[in-house]
Amino acid sequence: MSHREMDELLKSQILCRISFHDEPYPYTLPMEYYYFGDVMYFHFTTTGKKMELLNKNPNVTVEVDWCNDTMTDYKSVILKGRLVPVDNPDERNTINVAMASAVHERAGIKALLRIPWGKKGIDYLSASNIPLRLLKLDVKEMTGKKAH
């Protein structure tokens, strides 16, 4: 796949599989992601197994795919890189507000975070009653494959 095709796939999907280094096997989870510009962002709770693994080793593999109903056509992108915290307040606020717009209609995340969605420009990660951490993927390698 060309870089443009991989970028289009990443922009069109919302769910990925992310694998963390664990022993004796990788620890893989389905996760929502947010793709803005050419950067993949994630919000994580601040506790749990994925955070334990991330604190030990921030290198991850992320997979995003799409297929048609008959699975005769598919696209897949694999990204390898390092998850890094978004500490810059301007970047964090910009992305959090953009993420709020992107997830506004997703009932699952709305119910989970219990946020006053009517307020425009709200930094929803900061407004959540669940401690969340904003991370981005510093991509070191990206490959893609498609059926046609």
What does this structure look like?
With 148 residues, this protein is an alpha+beta fold. Helices cover 30% and strands 39% of the residues. The protein is built from five helices and seven strands. It has helices spanning 3-12, 49-56, 89-103, 107-113, 124-127, and strands spanning 15-20, 27-32, 34-36, 39-45, 59-67, 74-85, 132-146. Strands 2-1-5-6-7-4-3 form a seven-stranded antiparallel beta sheet, with helices on both faces. The protein is globular.
Strand order of the largest sheet: 2-1-5-6-7-4-3
Low-confidence stretches: none
Strand content: 35-45%
- The end-to-end distance, rounded to whole angstroms, is 10 Å
What class would the helix/strand composition place it in? alpha+beta
Elements, N to C (H/E): HEEEEHEEHHHE
SS summary, helix count: 5
Estimate the global geometry from the Cα principal axes.
globular
Which sheet architecture does the biggest sheet show? 7 strands, antiparallel
Total number of strands? 7
What helical percentage do the residues reach? 25-40%
Q: What is the alpha-carbon Rg in Å? A: 16 Å
What is the overall pLDDT average?
A: 84
